[in-house]
Amino acid sequence: MSQLDDSVRRIRKGAAVLSASSDDVRKRALLLMADAIDAERAAIKEENAADVSAAEKEGISDALLHRLVFTDSKIDSAVLGLRELAGLPDPIGRVREKRELDPGFILEKRTFPIGVIAMIFEARPDALVQIAGLAVRSGNAAVLKGGREAGRTNRILVSIIRKATEKIINGEWILGIESHEDVNAVLGMEGLIDLIIPRGSNSFVRYVMDHTRIPVIGHSDGICSVYADASADIDMAVRIFIDSKTQYPAACNAAETFLVHKDIAPSLLPKIGEAFRSLGVVIHGDEETRHFIPWAVPASEEDYHTEYLTLECAVKVVNSIDEAIEHIASHSSHHTDAIVTSDEDAKRRFFQEVDSADVFANCSTRFADGFRFGLGAEVGISTSKIHARGPVGLDGLMTTKWLLSGHGETVAEYSGPDGKPFHHKELM
Amino acid sequence: MSQLDDSVRRIRKGAAVLSASSDDVRKRALLLMADAIDAERAAIKEENAADVSAAEKEGISDALLHRLVFTDSKIDSAVLGLRELAGLPDPIGRVREKRELDPGFILEKRTFPIGVIAMIFEARPDALVQIAGLAVRSGNAAVLKGGREAGRTNRILVSIIRKATEKIINGEWILGIESHEDVNAVLGMEGLIDLIIPRGSNSFVRYVMDHTRIPVIGHSDGICSVYADASADIDMAVRIFIDSKTQYPAACNAAETFLVHKDIAPSLLPKIGEAFRSLGVVIHGDEETRHFIPWAVPASEEDYHTEYLTLECAVKVVNSIDEAIEHIASHSSHHTDAIVTSDEDAKRRFFQEVDSADVFANCSTRFADGFRFGLGAEVGISTSKIHARGPVGLDGLMTTKWLLSGHGETVAEYSGPDGKPFHHKELM
Prior knowledge:
Two copies of one chain form a homodimer.
Chain A lengths: L2 H18 L2 H17 L1 H17 L4 H7 L3 H16 L7 E8 L2 E9 L2 E5 L4 H14 L2 E5 L5 H15 L8 E3 L3 H8 L7 E4 L3 H9 L13 E5 L5 H13 L8 E7 L3 H15 L2 E4 L1 H6 L4 E2 L13 E7 L2 H11 L4 E5 L3 H10 L4 E6 L6 H4 L6 E3 L7 E3 L5 E12 L15 E2 L2
Parallel strand pairs in A: 3-4, 3-6, 4-5, 7-8, 7-12, 8-11, 9-10, 9-11, 12-13
Antiparallel strand pairs in A: 1-2, 1-17, 2-16, 14-15
Helix pairs in contact in A: 2-5, 2-7, 3-7, 5-6, 6-7, 10-11
């Protein structure tokens, strides 16, 4: 048995302890984690500075560097985030269904932690703190693999978190892993690890999905679109197009494709062209779009399947809401799609027929986020239709058990022509 | 593109139609299905008789033959089942969460059908009717593969169901497939099929899980156990042991292992020995068990990992509830495990610490069933911790969408030091 295997087995025991721990213990653990990170910030920043200088020597991009640096204000937010998680209602033991099968014979469906969750994420130290906090709040043990560039920062954070909680959680519940070999070993640990949540590049998430039989929650692509309906308010559409594309273009919930109803193309597209040109957004447009935005690059079919993640987008004029919905069905990655409209029927159809995790009307696609949704925090965004869809907070980290309490009931009594009937009385 | 591929693409279009159809349309479709099966019962029975006589020539087992025969009373139950499904509340569009992010900026999480579900099941014609009914009620299109022996019966049932609903559902939503090649092709249809629910032998379910990247809900093993605690009522324990083992030994929710606390072994085990001997149940017992039931076969470690599915079981004496819980953790398939106890603390610990889909107190494991649970019907029982766990009814066939309705909100307004705060007011 490898050392890693041994560690994960210990974590699995710790998961049982955490799962059986009271709400109060998990709350106090979160507050102890917050206090410890706050108290040890000098040491954390020292390790982080070493990570940053090594990354700079390797010529890391500015965007990645920005994510890697653990500033005082980011540490403040991380500490505050843990304290806020402590204030959220306990997700364990919630009654989802309650039914009397026969007088005094009570069935309940209650929430319980999933067990051991492996989370693989990018080089953001604040992500590690948030994910560890979600694990404690939800009663799940966590195997964490952060970005390589944040290695020293992650190591000290895991060590501080472990030490802070070991007095009140009688078991190991957090394990940091670092190498690609360890990640590959984890992918093979069916039966020891219950769920994998990968974040990162499309190709990495796809790699994880292809190399494990453990359930995976995540998304590989984020091809989000905004459709401006015939009835759209022009100024609102301009505002939403700009925010969806440019507020943070590298995010998975940034829009890549804009669809414009032909009736408002003459009034909307010139304004979009002007706004996007001044913001430096490259437009790939179809012929109709280029009629109104002559400087747009001709779009190929490929452009409508592209997740640019930069100041670049594809624009297409459509003849109807049907064509917009059809385009989304065949091109979107079913992450987040929005309509701008003042027609309630159009909104209703879009909400009904667009089959994506997040379907929005009259607001930016960038709202697709666990914090903005009020979930407390998120471990990621799921484009799977199974288990959890969209931003995944505490809820997505829970499973359920059916608990049935009787007084000696047998199925034989309820079987055959003379068997007792069930009365199935809903108790909630 | 193969013919099957083409058919599944048509079904996928039908899924969108079914998903957008009203509650009333889906209810009427179920009643039309019920009427048509009722009206065509002579033709159905003729096809079934042909299946039965072919199966008899092939020397099918009595148990399988019993499942295959579609008697008038089974047809009556199937028809009644469809009418009952029509009476269940609409599972589509239920609001699971509702929150105001800021005044007038409303987020809802609502249920929607998953899409196209492939279900592979045994040679029971009533299963086909029930599964087709669950698909219509939940708004999902269905690809159905029944047992080979029921081929003619399944073909006429699919044809009757399709014809009965085509007047009110404007699209193809049900597809019967028959060959192993078609099943293998379906396993590769990622993106066209959203979920696979296999039922059947352990090795078959495992084969499906190993050969597809489409999510699978199901269970491979059903090693269920009953633990008689020190405080158990002896007569109740005997009754529950007998029902759990013998009421229908071939079912996945029948018990395979019995654990007995050492303090009640002297009073319980002789009675169990007597009862099981008279019912023809073979006992594999540990040394302590054989002290009280001398005719028991010595148990090997392997016996505690065996799903007998016949009148055979493993019995073990344990020193404590801890040992019982530990045994279940390392041997159970986490399907259904029960405790017999009169001690509330023991029950609470068992409910908390046993990590199985169904955890019961003072009743038979055989209650683990969608109909008995009051779910209306079930497509199967899941031992996965993800998405659906235990008996899977309409709820397990739904996914959710996050619907966000605004008035032009951008993330930029809510960002940075001067950004507006979210007020995240719960509306339910």
